[in-house]
Amino acid sequence: MSSIPEHLKFTYEDYLLLPEDRRYEIIGGDLFMTPSPKRAHQKISLNLATILWSFAKAHGLGEVYEAPFDVLFSRHDVVQPDVLFVSRENLSIVGENNIQGAPDLIIEILSPSTAERDLDLKKKLYARHAVKEYWIVDPDARKVTVYLWKDNDYVKTGVYGEEDSWQPHLLPGLTIKGKEIFA
């Protein structure tokens, strides 16, 4: 198996030269174009971001962002998670143009064009960079799968549907209700 020479991989510097009318990500030096999300995806993203933002702000826990906002893990790994949370203790990684390092929580909402990437490449990328909590939201199944980073990998802690509620590990005191996410 041969690997791609370093000088042929896409970098953050290349990424900055791309047109701004589309969403791009770089994973392992490979460039991916991400189409605009559909209506259901947007509604779920807004619902999640609003719930998390309101709670985090009210309790001074950190900051919540929605795509597009670049997360730089390395020169060859630049992603735009759908929703993310950075705890107050880690706010030093948040810059004006991007986040440099691992957010505490990343949420990806599956779309037909990105599902495989979210379930495999991005999950591995997030684990490699020790993102503490990773949620995968499946709009079709109306389920949220929650993973916690433990012992250098992710452990599934639950799968929650519209009728369920749960408490995020990183936001003590917050109860997430499935019906509010998928409303």
**H/E element order:** HEEHEEEEEEHHEEEEEH
- Beta-strand percentage range: 25-35%
> How large, in whole angstroms, is the Cα Rg?
16 Å
In DSSP terms (H or I, runs of 4 or more residues), the helix count works out at 5
Tell me roughly what share of residues is in helical segments. 10-25%
- Report the mean per-residue pLDDT as an integer: 93
Q: How many structural domains are formed by the residues?
A: 1
Question: What gap, in angstroms, lies between the N and C termini?
Answer: 47 Å
CATH architecture: Alpha-Beta Complex
Largest sheet: 6 strands, mixed
Named CATH topology: tt1808, chain A
What is the approximate shape? globular
List the helices and strands and how they pair.
Blueprint: H1 12-15, E1 23-27, E2 30-34, H2 39-59, E3 62-66, E4 70-74, E5 77-79, E6 83-87, E7 98-100, E8 105-109, H3 115-119, H4 121-128, E9 133-138, E10 143-150, E11 153-161, E12 165-166, E13 176-177, H5 178-181
Parallel strand pairs: 4-7, 8-9
Antiparallel strand pairs: 1-2, 3-6, 4-5, 6-8, 9-10, 10-11, 12-13
Tag the structure with descriptive keywords.
tt1808, chain A, 6-stranded mixed beta sheet, 183 residues
Plain-language structure description:
The chain has five helices and 13 strands. It has helices at residues 12-15, 39-59, 115-119, 121-128, 178-181; strands spanning 23-27, 30-34, 62-66, 70-74, 77-79, 83-87, 98-100, 105-109, 133-138, 143-150, 153-161, 165-166, 176-177. Strands 3-6-8-9-10-11 form a six-stranded mixed beta sheet. A three-stranded mixed beta sheet has the order 5-4-7, with no helix packed on it. A two-stranded antiparallel ribbon has the order 1-2. The longest helix is centred in the first third of the chain and has 21 residues, at 39-59. The chain is globular, with a radius of gyration of 16 Å. The model has no long low-confidence stretch (mean pLDDT 93).
